[in-house]
Amino acid sequence: MTKEIKNKKESDMQSSKSEEKLAEEAKKMPPIQDDISDEEELDDDGNEITSSDSVGIETKIMDLIATGHMFKAHVIAKKAFQKHPNNIMLAQAYSLVLLKTGAVEESRKLIYQILGTIPQKDESTDEMMITIEDLRASKFLASRNADAMANIGHIFKESWKYSHHCRDLEISRELYLASFKIKQKTSTGMNAAWLSWLTGEDTLAKQLSSDVLKLLPPFGLEASFSELIDLAEAQLLIGREDDACKLYEEAMKQSDNENYISVVTARQQLYFLREAGFKVPNASLDILVPPTIVVFTGHAIDHPSFQVSLFPQELESDVKRTIAEKLQSINAKIGYSSAACGADIIFVEALQSIGGEINIILPFAISDFVETNVRHAGPRWEKRFEKILAGAHSVNFASEDRYLGHDMLYRFSNHVMHGSAVIRGKFLTTDPHLMAVWHSRTDPIPGGPADFIDRWTNISTLHLIDLDELGENSGTVEKIETALVQPQKNTLSFDPHISKSPDRVIRSMMFSDLSGYSKLQDEHIASFLDFLEKLNAAIEKIGVPLESLNTWGDAIFAVADSAIKIADFGLKYCDIVENLGKKYPEFPFPIRARISLHSGPVFVAQDPFIKKMNFYGGHINRAARLEPVTAVGQVYATQQFVSLLHGETSDECNEYAQKGLKYYERYSTEYVGVISLAKSFGQQEVYHLRWK
Predict the structure, then answer these.
(1) What is the pLDDT of residue 219?
(2) What confidence tier does 362 reach under pLDDT thresholds 50, 70, 90?
(3) Do 36 and 54 meet the contact criterion of CB atoms below 8 Å apart?
């Protein structure tokens, strides 16, 4: 049993205690004091690091949270808190990490300990919570630590995103308000103002906005970027839209000195307020312009086995010039692309030359990719390939498997690229664009430019560069037969396994087992069989079409032809287990599910024993190895699955828009971090999937 799984088991034991026991434990907890230590150990690798006080450790933890390395942050925060349990700065940082990694109950317990308050059962929510009166009577508020108040206010605001309990917003507002009264900061004042508006305290919200505006000279002369944003929001809240837009414009003049994330954060706030029902002027969103994200696809330089030319070497300068012009016209700053010789490498070089961020996604093992997509154009292109990879912001693989002659791996890579750009676009509050260097007289082949173009549903964000128009045969209307412009598979002499490989398909899959099952004793078997019978009946009613569903013991393995189907099935299954597990008090632990989701290319063939079609390959194993390290009661999904899911939902959204219908997103994905898979199966970027 790994240490992480052991900790999760211990968490199950704690969460199963009675409410009375929790209350008794809370009474025994000494309030956390604001003591500052002189030395800290720990970094994410377990090495010793030294800081003159706890600020350095807290800063490191918060930086890791901001960049999405939640589990690294968890390791440091947990060890630091264990060494200095009375340090309030480390305690609140650890609480935020717990919250971000899905341990909501544990995060709340620690926060109540920091506040020195005892939670009581709330009749409306049936959960252990504190009241505003409890908070106001706490010694914590009497400490007048304004920064700590604001930090814990932030934690309660984040907690509301999980709980949706208005009480969390009210407590968050109270903490921000107390912080603002002690330390007049525009950020805490505006947080208190918006939280007041969200909880129906309109008069207080406007008064706080007016107080924030008095902190700086008119229109924010000599104010920082963040202060200008706070002043703009204050003007918005009291109804002065024109003045707010002037402040946003002033802030954007300073944005060159700011990380674009600051601009995006301000824009995200406006979208959040609009969703909450506040009237946000479109003009303000037009001012806070995020960078353009471009997904790229294009033809490679002609392969020697081509019988008709699509992209001869002499067209390189024309393609380079046209790509550069289009990048400038749409203010492109972030790109997602493969790295084949020809259009891909030209695009990457063009974006890198203007300081853009490049994220390269390769479809399969790098040695096979170089052999099939780079080397045939000559050593010059191979050197350029190495250079762009060295200078890329990130290099990832849609699949690290061998090519084996399966072109559908290119299509899967396109899905991952599209979904990755959509995820980034959601964070930047913008839609990704597709730029394609294609040949208009060719038919789509799996994973080729025409295939990508056909699957791109938002034509308003599509930018085409036609090689036919740039070449000597411009004006010709005859179609080019696909067989004439495909590399001959028999030329891939480096790979003797191609002819022996079974069929390969893109599939999404789910693995799940039941936490607590191994702790059951003989006297629980009858109840557990009853539990399984009810669980099976509930599964049959889920109504999601699956290609395969296998069960053994307490485990389930499901396969479907889309990420949406597996997401629906996995989340519904998780809900069923959570609700059903509470109905068996005789079990020593509540039965809960661990669920892992993954997508990738798998082999499909008839099982020699059961004579039915089954699925095989490394991606099946990857999905299985994620399940044991998934947090109990949660659904974890790989980067590949989440990318595919966001690409599919983006297509759904565009289809709804074309029909004039409103689309409601069903899923929320929060980045957990890079975690080690079970049985030394490597590492994997993982997301927490839940209903929106």
Answers:
(1) 60
(2) very high
(3) yes
Residue 486 pLDDT: 75
SS in 3 state form for 108-175? Answer: HHHHHHHHCCCCEEECCCCEEECCHHHHHCCHHHHCCCHHHHHHHHHHHHHHHHHHCCHHHHHHHHHH
Q: Are residues 529 and 566 in the same domain?
A: yes
Other C-beta atoms closer than 10 Å to the C-beta of 152 total 26
**Between 1 and 57, residue with greater pLDDT:** 57
Q: What is the mean pLDDT of the chain?
A: 84
Q: Is the pLDDT of residue 473 over 70?
A: no
Within a 10 A sphere around the Cβ of 238, how many other Cβ atoms? 17
State the pLDDT at residue 57. Answer: 85
CA distance 238 to 250: 19
Tokens of 435: 């730029």
- Cα–Cα dist 688/632, whole Å: 12
The pTM assigned to this predicted structure is 0.73
Does 296 lie in the same domain as 270? no
Whether 164 is in a domain gets the answer no
Per the rule left: phi > 0, alpha: psi between -120 and 50, beta: everything else, 164 is left
Cβ(348)–Cβ(388) below 8 Å: yes
What interhelical angle do 202-213 and 166-182 show, nearest 10? Answer: 30
Total domains in the chain come to 4
Give the list of residues 6+ apart from residue 463 with CB closer than 8 angstroms, or none.
326, 330, 433, 434, 435, 436
What pLDDT is recorded for position 293? 94
Look at residue 542 and tell me whether its pLDDT is greater than 50.
yes
CATH code, domain with 556: 3.30.70.1230
Query: Are residues 382 and 305 both part of a single domain?
Result: yes
